[in-house]
Amino acid sequence: MAKIANTQALTITRQLGKTTRAQESSTRKLASGKRVNSASDDAASLGISAKLNATIRSRGQAHRNANDAISIVQTIEGSLKEINSSVVRIRELAIHSASDTVSNNERELMNLEVYQNLREIDRITESTEMFSQKLTEGEDKRLEIQVDKGSGKKDRIFIQLNNLAQSTLALGIDDVDIKSQRHAQHSLIKLDYALRAVGESVAKMGAMQSRFTTAISKLETDVINGKQANSRITDTDYAQETANNLKEKMKEDAQSSLISQAHNNLRDVTKLI
Q1: pLDDT in tens, 161-172
Q2: What is the number of structural domains in the chain?
Q3: With CB atoms counted within 10 Å of each terminal CB, which end of the chain scores lower, N or C?
Q4: Contact yes or no for 50/168 (Cβ under 8 A)
Q5: Does residue 54 have a pLDDT over 80?
């Protein structure tokens, strides 16, 4: 009889240990808000969650890359607009000089302003840079912006810097002068070409900014969807887990009581022997 009582106590003790571990696991889930805290909770879900987290973080960085790219595009666009303003002013002066309503002395004075505007265009071209790269110098190069998690071309957007050349030489207006009526009239053709070239570059930058904005919007949606999917996999269902925790606590209390009773029975049997 003593042996039976002792076996019962050991069995209940093992069950109590199992119940205690289950109750501790349930408490951890409630405290952390996570259903999966370690591989022992759900190895498959933990693996899926790890992949989702990697994707979410990668797309988060891609989102920052795209925002940086918009800053680059806006810098280029701002420079181009300043250059456009200078070309417009030079053309305005050329129109004035092409008229017989001004004297040669006045043309000389206006040509000084033309010269200063031409030098300002070249200064903007030389000084505009970001991340140690000159952005409007017109070299045959491009910037690659990683805008998604993969390694393929579809995950990158390219900003072509060639054909954005906006120096006076590239625009064909480096030798413009309006010191005479004839020179002023001939300069209008060059200035019209320059305005078209600058306008096309501004339009390209506007389209590029729109593309990056779309990429950012998609990344934001992807990150939100990824976080929601990860949440469904790993987050605790508080209602269900609270019920589980209460159930395991009640089992633990009952088993503790049974162990205590089993020990008392064992002592009684021992006394009888």
Answers
A1: 766 667 898 899
A2: 1
A3: C
A4: no
A5: yes
